[in-house]
Specification:
Number of strands: 2
Distance between the termini: 46 Å
Order of helices and strands: HHHHHHEEHHH
Shape: elongated
Number of helices: 9
Strand order of the largest sheet: 1-2
Largest sheet: 2 strands, antiparallel
């Protein structure tokens, strides 16, 4: 049903693995590790422009808050009139809801695709989307240090110690990066004057505390390969916040 996601994600992963396998060898676990990392980097590089659009969207929303309050004051209880006025306001300010959500939607779709593709590496005699049976077997044998990339803490069996030695640090790194990324976002909301509604406060608290704990809990049932995805994704987000915001602030000064 979601082949329009699975095949492109599989194809990009295949391209990177093929490139690294040509240097490191088809059976190299490092080739698979690098392929997953560069898959994330490819996606995030493609989403830089939408991310900048998201920043402008956020700043536009902050600038709109006084106008929105005025619209609600003028048309209390008239939801239809409020919606019409807010649409006009969005057009006037150039705020595009779709562009504001695009980076999150893109990252979510790629995660769904990658998770499905990696979980579909099961039978070494059956192809997996664009991967041949030989490549499926290569993935099933691939390891990060001594931890199989396809293993989880829950199904590690005799390899539990080896998997735990790799998975637990990755889970902790992902959780810490998630927390500090959220802290940076909350601080920026304060700087640009975003109205802290009860809904915003709830999302901020979830991002600061619940999501990092969720990363640790989910890590217990996620394959090591997916944990690599999370760590790379979070590391990119953390670095991007500091580098891109600096450029954006120079372009559009934050009050």
């Amino acid at each position: 049903m979601l082949n329009f996601i699975y095949y492109p994600v599989s194809a990009v992963l295949w391209l990177w693995h093929t490139a690294f396998a040509a240097v490191l060898g088809a059976s190299s676990g490092l080739a698979w590790v690098l392929a997953i990392i560069f898959l994330v980097m490819t996606l995030r590089a493609l989403l830089i422009k939408p991310f900048l659009a998201q920043l402008r969207f956020s700043k536009g929303l902050a600038e709109m808050q006084p106008h929105i309050a005025e619209i609600k004051r003028k048309h209390p209880g008239d939801m239809q009139k409020q919606s019409e006025e807010m649409r006009k306001l969005q057009e006037e300010k150039g705020v595009n809801m779709f562009l504001g959500c695009l980076p999150i939607v893109g990252q979510t779709l790629v995660f769904i695709g990658l998770y499905h593709v990696l979980r579909s590496f099961q039978n070494p005699n059956i192809a997996n989307y664009v991967f041949s049976p030989e490549q499926v077997q290569s993935f099933l044998q691939a390891k990060l240090f001594s931890a199989p990339l396809a293993s989880t803490l829950m199904n590690a069996g005799d390899s539990f110690t080896s998997v735990a030695a790799v998975a637990i640090p990755l889970m902790i790194i992902a959780a810490v990066a998630t927390h500090f990324t959220a802290r940076f976002t909350v601080e920026r909301q304060r700087r640009i004057g975003t109205e802290v509604t009860p809904q915003v406060r709830l999302i901020n608290n979830l991002s600061l505390y619940v999501f990092p704990l969720g990363a640790i809990a989910a890590g217990a049932v996620m394959p090591v390969a997916i944990l690599l995805y999370f760590v790379t994704q979070n590391a990119w987000t953390f670095a991007q916040q500091h580098l891109v915001y600096r450029r954006f602030d120079a372009e559009v000064p934050v009050p």
